[in-house]
Amino acid sequence: MANSTTRRGLLKGGLAVSAGLAGTKAMAAGDPAITEVQDWAQSLGEGVDARPYGSPSGFEAHVKRRNVEWLTADPVSSVNFTPLHELDGIITPNGLCFERHHAGIAEVDPGLHRLMINGLVDTPLVFTMSDLMRFPRENRVYFLECAANTGMEWRGAQLNGCQFTHGMIHNVMYTGVPLRYVLEEAGVKTAGKWILPEGADASAMTRSIPLEKALDDCLLAFKMNGEALRPEQGYPLRLVVPGWEGNMWVKWLRRIEVGDQPWHHREETSKYTDLLADGQARRFTWEMDAKSVITNPSPQAPILHGPGPTVLTGVAWSGRGSIPRVDVTIDGGMNWHQARMSGPSFDKSMHRFYYEFDWDGSPLLLQSRAHDSTGYVQPTKTQLREVRGVNSIYHNNAIQTWAIDEKGRAENVEVS
Amino acid sequence: MANSTTRRGLLKGGLAVSAGLAGTKAMAAGDPAITEVQDWAQSLGEGVDARPYGSPSGFEAHVKRRNVEWLTADPVSSVNFTPLHELDGIITPNGLCFERHHAGIAEVDPGLHRLMINGLVDTPLVFTMSDLMRFPRENRVYFLECAANTGMEWRGAQLNGCQFTHGMIHNVMYTGVPLRYVLEEAGVKTAGKWILPEGADASAMTRSIPLEKALDDCLLAFKMNGEALRPEQGYPLRLVVPGWEGNMWVKWLRRIEVGDQPWHHREETSKYTDLLADGQARRFTWEMDAKSVITNPSPQAPILHGPGPTVLTGVAWSGRGSIPRVDVTIDGGMNWHQARMSGPSFDKSMHRFYYEFDWDGSPLLLQSRAHDSTGYVQPTKTQLREVRGVNSIYHNNAIQTWAIDEKGRAENVEVS
Q: What is the CATH number of domain A94-282?
């Protein structure tokens, strides 16, 4: 199996394709895709006035967010999942970013939207969207991961597809105003140590966030990937809390209260706490631990081309920094190979890795293991369960295994 | 006017907003947006099953690509323009990337699409899309600019809006296979010095590209911003020619011929050559020179908030490298200020700049001037015309001026 981390390795991979493609070349002579002139080569397509805002090809209609009907009682307080197995690079397109709502998608009129800053501040303030546009802006790429991502896997392999096991994540370039500027504008009183962001939708989502984090890297974001936030992502304004669990990134943000202690609201007590084996619960587990998953091959994306040169790819991220290294195994951990990273590396952003190998057609056990810039290494399921038990829903960042059979089909399996 | 390049400058800008927002705070008591409970705060929105592929808020319907009807005889061989004044950051969302077609949008079936490599190669090859997925991939962010971008401005200020003067550009993260790997697979003969990529649409677009460039940084791209290419951007396969004029980035790429000399086809003789004042034409002017434009304020995005703290922003790029610096003037060049850059800096990618200032309500003349990593500085219109005359359509990278009147309205104007 060719190691993919060197240029020589890449060329070796390329040459290997040559052998595999001998059949393709021979096929060309009788290939109707070559011998026949296709419609699109002999007739005019739509003009530039046809799609003022574009959409994907009809051949990509299968690439979509999906929900799991049995997961929640109702679709307005539910989640859908990013199709990670259909994506590449590190940017999640806006139309495919996973959603989690508590009262459905609020359709907010930006002209009537306000952001209030109140509580322990010198001057309570109310901002229109136009007011916020007068503060300096920053552009940064961050992943947003739901704390419950991979939550179904605590007790064993459950869902057959990385879209469902790991798809409560997206990675986007945000444009926004550092929250610090707005808090400084209001003037936080000495006693102020926490903030409580609140959403404008009917669920009025709230979470307690330490002031230190609020003044560090949080953004009041109004654009994602260059354009306005999407309604399902909090249009016209959402809080960005880099590296921390997605539930804290309050959408349709209408108010930030400054207080002297946390509020212990529903979403940080009965929810978003981690029940351990001894009945105690961890709380305020905000940071997302380093994690990775192989997106291809995977249960929704089997190997269709048969033995020979094969590209394995996946994504990795950490709430504590960047991902300098990902290891990959195709034999269930007997041999590990350092994956090739390609694409930008930012703190608290998704990273893309590849491992090219020559598949001999035998069954495989695929795993990936992320290392983050703090030195932390993604644990096995066994290691994680030893520390946390299996009662929790949240913060499962264990190594994921896909079993590949001799036909290239992939399945979610448990290995020790 | 506050210089924006230091932290102190930012805070100064922030404090300045305070004064400007005193009115906002006072307004809050009687503001119906505060005193009335909005519909979205008291009723459930759509569920997660409503939008398998999302779209922008209805309040953003004005954010769209636009064409200029008089510019071309027909919309199937025409162009539409990216709404730069509505975007921020550096990523252009896929639905808003400008388009240029010569026979309309080809709707290609990826299962029937083939890429042929022929001409001066050891082994002519034909690849399916699935074959190409077996080569190692790279992820890189590049701008694509039409050589005719700003082409209407050679003889004077024409179009009122940066969407129309500068909107034939987009900036996207591509995933693709380095063209080098596929050429190495076929084996380029010693005599091979040029390639001719060819499109599968009815226009069968072709351009001659030196082999040196083909082996350097060109990509066979199949994804943009994480998802499949859009039909109007060449789905399922386009050539990416970093830093070079957009016409060479052949869409719906079906064939690459290797030859020993350029082909001198239509798009590199009667088109995409630069007629000088003496009647001679420059040819093979592939690289896009360093350029910038202020996107806000601009004719389509006037200052609506009146005097006080104001955010000026824009984009800059160079086909030769990165943009370490952009200068901004608000008084027609009497005083220049170094702009604040925010967001990733990649070679041959768009960069975002900002300049925050305290507008006193008097008329302004706004200009930006890009410096690229080779030391090249964006020229004035006068400087450019001295060298190139005014006969050309292509490669106008001159400094753009917007005049702002006392009401905040912006206009495209000529200054010496």
A: 3.90.420.10
